[in-house]
Amino acid sequence: MNKDKFQVPELDEHLMQTQIKQIVEQSVFARPAFSRQMAAMYSQISIRQIFADRKELSLVFLIGMFLFGWLFSMQHHLESEAVYTGLFLISPVLFLGFSLYSYWTRVEKDTYEVEMACKFNVYQLMAFRMLAFSVLSILVNSLFITLVAQVHPNIHFIRALMISLTSLFIFSNLFLWTLMKRHSLVTTAAMVFGWIFSNLLLHYGMGSLYGELLVQIPIVIYVLVLLGSLYVYGGLLKKYFDLRQMKGAV
Amino acid sequence: MLVVKEVSKQYGDFTALRDIQLEFETGLYGLLAPNGAGKTTLIKMLATLLYPTKGEVLYNGNNIIDMDSSYRELLGYLPQQFGYYKNYSPKQYLLYLSALKGISKKEALPKIIELLDKVALGDVVNKKMKKFSGGMVQRVGIAQALLNDPKILILDEPTAGLDPKERARFRNLLTDLARSRLVIVSTHIVSDIESIANEIIMIKNQQILYKDSVETICGTLDGAVFETSMEFEQLESFRQDHVLLSEKQEYGKMIVRFIHKETPLVDWLPVQPQLEDVFLYEYRDETNGTVQ
């Protein structure tokens, strides 16, 4: 009686590794890069829907403009150092207003669970909006500094811009970090008050020294701090985008 | 299709669910338990709103948390507390949610009109939702869960606020939907699911008590449910000795429905157990009578 002889092929290490890789690739869901996910959001959700609350955001914008207008009207009577400290304090104001409003309406409301169960969830939407708010803040701050530099003889445009951008991104990082660590509007509001209070304390406590310090720091240091802040901001924004991935939503 | 594999959920020292093992296929599943039994915790884990402390939930063999947005694309979810923006109309809100679900406006608009018609809101498409009754808001919630034609539809207490007519319409809608997808309905109202669910899941003491058809679950009380009538004065002592399922007054006498597992009296009428009987029996207060 002939029995079939089964030949077991010799295991080829390369083939084995290739097949393992294929199996893993097919079974593990690879997450696309942050930038690609943002681009996908932009292409799949219309800007009208990402900023569906345009009326409310416009109101926040007007309040921000009022603050800028107030500083602009005051700057004639202020020393250049005081204008720089004022800039450092209010540069994040638009970003703050937009982001706090977004957090309050998107995360703290009953709509949160419905939106978290969607393809693009609340944190992803918030991350996209915050990036847009940063860009808008940079534009508005730059425009404001241009106007101030035109009329105030001792304001140096590049220095003022560097102070403004550094302030914006240091604040944004603190804001994002607090949002991720505490998930609470109260804690975030406390951090915002901390920012304002510590700035005022430095301004009034140190007198003109604080302003002089901002003036004396070399531009290159501002550039380095700004680059570092931008790097941290990118990382924090990505973490915020993936927040649900780490913690679960509720 | 969807497998809950040895899932436990703890909140600090409190265990909400322990070693839950479930398998779901296409069809309608009723998750039935009293408030606080862990239904919403389980539902939220199936919707990826909560992560299990132990174990995992798999969809076609893949962990739903790893699947991330590709799982949520398949999901329709109505939470227990359906939130909405008061100044939005249903059309505006559903358009916004369609965008979050990755559906283009062109594709979403006819779908929204169709769904709002289906939940009898076709004539208030552009009315602000702040003027809506609780039942109307809930129907918007049901419509939004169906926007992406989900493969998995999870509804947490969907009939809250609906009147009897709306409930009946909703049951018909669910029956239709469950023919081609997995539908999980969490409720503590037995009549919502008794006649339409392929299987009922009951949770007790943080674990699965039953996962079976209505008939099989009712079968656990076969020969143990009776009805009898008595004078009102006798009721109190009868309550002490039996687990009463219902009491009603008829022609001056009390008609009671109760559980009895030993030899019955001749004038007791044996009746077919219903799902509500099992529910009331399993979740009875320990102080409410004893089973004989």
Question: Describe it for me?
Answer:
The complex is a heterodimer of chains A (250) and B (292). In chain A, 78% of the residues lie in helices and 0% in strands. Chain A is mainly α and 250 residues long. Chain A has one domain (49-247). In chain A, helix 5 (80-90) packs across helix 11, helix 6 (93-106) runs antiparallel to helix 8 and helix 9 packs parallel to helix 12 (219-241). Chain A is elongated. With 292 residues, chain B is α/β, with parallel strands linked by helices. Helix content of chain B is 33%, strand content 29%. In chain B, the strands form three sheets. A six-stranded mixed sheet of chain B has the order 6-7-8-3-9-10, with helices on both faces. A four-stranded antiparallel sheet of chain B has the order 2-1-4-5. The radius of gyration of chain B is 22 Å and the shape is globular. Chains A and B meet through helix 7 and helix 13 of A and helix 2, helix 3, strand 6 and helix 4 of B.
Give the topology.
The complex is a heterodimer of chains A (250) and B (292).
Chain A lengths: L12 H15 L6 H11 L2 H4 L3 H21 L5 H11 L2 H14 L5 H5 L5 H30 L5 H26 L2 H21 L2 H9 L2 H23 L1 H5 L3
Chain B lengths: L1 E10 L2 E11 L2 E6 L6 H8 L7 E6 L2 E2 H4 L1 H4 L2 E4 L11 H11 L4 H14 L15 H12 L6 E5 L7 H14 L4 E6 L2 H4 L5 E6 L2 E6 L1 H6 L5 E6 L1 H10 L1 E8 L2 E7 L9 E2 L4 H8 L10
Parallel strand pairs in B: 3-8, 3-9, 6-7, 7-8
Antiparallel strand pairs in B: 1-2, 1-4, 4-5, 9-10, 11-13, 11-14, 12-13
N-to-C SSE series of chain A?
HHHHHHHHHHHHH
CA radius of gyration of chain B is 22 Å
The chain-level mean pLDDT of chain A equals 84
Question: How many domains in all of chain A?
Answer: 1
CATH superfamily of the largest domain in chain B: P-loop containing nucleotide triphosphate hydrolases
CATH architecture call of the largest domain in chain B: 3-Layer(aba) Sandwich
Looking across the biggest beta sheet of chain B, what order are the strands in?
Answer: 6-7-8-3-9-10
By CATH, the topology of the largest domain in chain B is: Rossmann fold
Query: Would you state the CATH class of the largest domain in chain B?
Result: Alpha Beta
